[in-house]
Amino acid sequence: PVPKDNIQGDVWPGLPKKYETFYFFDIRNDKGQEKKYEVFKGRLKDFIPKITTAQQALVARNKIKDHNGKVTELEGDQGHLPEAHSNISFAQRGLIKLGKLGIKEISFVQGMYTDLTAESRDEPSDYKQPYTSTDGVFLVAGSSKEIVEAKVKEIVALFGDSITKQFIECGQARPGEYEGKEHFGFRDLISQPLIEGLDNPPTGEKEPKLVLPGKIFVDREGRSAPQDGAPWAKDSSFMVFRKLRQNVLEFDKFCEGKKDEYHMSADALAARMFGRWKSGCPVDLSPDKDDKSLADSNNFDYRPINNQEKCPFTAHIRKTRPRGDKKDDGSPILRRGIPYGEEVKDDERLKQETLHNRGLLFVCYQGSIVNSFLNIQKRWCNMRTFPPGKYSATNNEEPGLDPIIGQRGPNIVFDMSIVDGNKQTVRLPLETWVLNQGGEYFLTPSISALRSISEV
Ligand code: N7H
């Protein structure tokens, strides 16, 4: 199995985080020496022991400290250790500077911006930050803004003039009762793939299955990308970062505006677009009302799969993980995102219009970006015909796009098929509520890969 002390903690099991800063940096030449980066490598060597590994993150997630410093061990993953945790990732241009070549994963090699093809439907003008010149990113997560900021300062001092800050992005858990929910109000990060050798087999699932480690980690069993050229990268993982703006007021207004026409409550319509109710309760198990006792459930697979009376074929969670719709639902991603931006303000409520930027700092890890993230976004969410085999079924029409993250393209109708409150199969025209603001592909090296990178 993948050794827990050889992988960074945000990949698995995920860092405990109420607040998180992404510090994007550029690696600088050694003084007066073109294309020499020995100073940076030396600092990296000193930084490696400060990284929170999977082993340490596991402990941190299960502990909580009270204000007297007393530590209580907790069951499950509810613990937030009041400390900050750091991880580091590199873009391809950072690895080139450091002389680490050989990774063949094509999307990573090109970078997210260059990867903008007609098919991906991103717009170059969406990219609000200079991601195209980013060499790497420090990811610092912790229980408060102050603790995280102090940790960032420490890292910046350690790396000194071997890096230049490019820009930062900050995320934070929503306050009070909304903690664990994203800005549309839905509980997020309930369903994650479980990995052979790291996780226990899932219980309470229709078809309990563990994912082979190669789907998440480089050069492991079940690997899904060509990795022969970079033996140094074993146990690393590819990280996708995307800043996704959410127009919450417009989403709510849309659901309110359509509820009568579709003969269901605004909440029920929203739940059908996600595939879960706001609590997390799957629509497939409870189509008519939010049942909080089912909030954590993964015990559903959309069967009978040619029927979408309960959960639409294109509901966000059905598009992104088709479960019973596909024999091998295998584009697993470990999602580690966090909301950014402030709570909806009074001036926005009054105007029913989004006036302040808020959304999700989307992060996911996988063994191949092409086979996981990009496959989900391009071939599943953006394709009207996915999930396959539904055309000739009861509704006799194409499922449509993912209502949450499907990207509208030229000459492509942005709508979805849905069974309304009168049990009629009808089309629901969609608007764009999630806007890509840019991002980048990174490699989150294993500890052994970091040692290899830091070698002079
Ligand atoms: Fe999605 N949301 O927070 O409202 N997502 N997501 N996602 N998503 C899921 O089942 C959301 C995005 C996946 O295993 C839930 O854990 C929002 C991208 C996958 O059944 C909710 C945005 C991609 C799953 C959201 C966003 C994915 C999933 C239900 C953008 C990949 C698991 C909670 C702003 C390309 C499916 C849960 C499964 C679930 C939200 C983006 C993928 C509530 C708002 C870009 C694989």
Structure in words:
Strand 2 and strand 3 (71-73) form a beta hairpin. Helices cover 21% and strands 18% of the residues. Helix 6 (248-258) packs across helix 7. It has a domain at 4-244 and 439-454. 46% of the residues are buried. It has helices spanning 38-47, 54-61, 92-97, 106-110, 145-159, 248-258, 266-274, 316-320, 346-351, 370-381, 447-454; strands at 19-27, 63-65, 71-73, 85-90, 136-142, 163-172, 237-246, 334-335, 338-340, 359-366, 415-419, 425-429, 434-444. The longest helix is centred in the middle third of the chain and has 15 residues, at 145-159. It is globular, with a radius of gyration of 22 Å. With 456 residues, the protein is of the alpha+beta class. The strands form four sheets. Strands 7, 8, 9, 10 and 13 form a five-stranded antiparallel sheet that branches. Strands 4-5-1-6 form a four-stranded antiparallel sheet. A two-stranded antiparallel sheet has the order 2-3. The model is unreliable at 75-81 (pLDDT under 50). Bound molecules: delta-meso nitroheme.
